[in-house]
Amino acid sequence: MPRHEYYGEDGTTEKEQCPRCGDTFLAEHEDRKHCGKCGYTEWL
């Protein structure tokens, strides 16, 4: 999904961005959120 589809008409998004990179969205998996750019992972 292209990045622009994550944003609403008002320019906001509900997707969580990586706290390390700041410019990458976290992929949402069943048991974790993961950044494909730097490898940051949040276990749920």
Automatic annotation (TrEMBL):
It comes from Halomarina halobia. Binds 1 zinc ion per subunit. Zn(2+) binds at C18, C21, C35, C38. One of its GO terms (molecular function) is zinc ion binding. The keyword Ribonucleoprotein applies. Part of the 30S ribosomal subunit. This is Small ribosomal subunit protein eS31. One of its GO terms (biological process) is translation. SUPFAM superfamilies: Zn-binding ribosomal proteins. SMART domains: Ribosomal_S27. InterPro entries: Ribosomal_eS31, Ribosomal_eS31_arc, Ribosomal_zn-bd. Its cofactor is Zn(2+). Belongs to the eukaryotic ribosomal protein eS31 family. The keyword Zinc-finger applies. The gene is rps27ae. Keywords: Metal-binding, Ribonucleoprotein, Ribosomal protein, Zinc, Zinc-finger. A zinc finger (C4-type) spans 18-38. Pfam families: Ribosomal_S27 (PF01599). One of its GO terms (cellular component) is ribosome. Residues 3-41 form the Small ribosomal subunit protein eS31 domain.
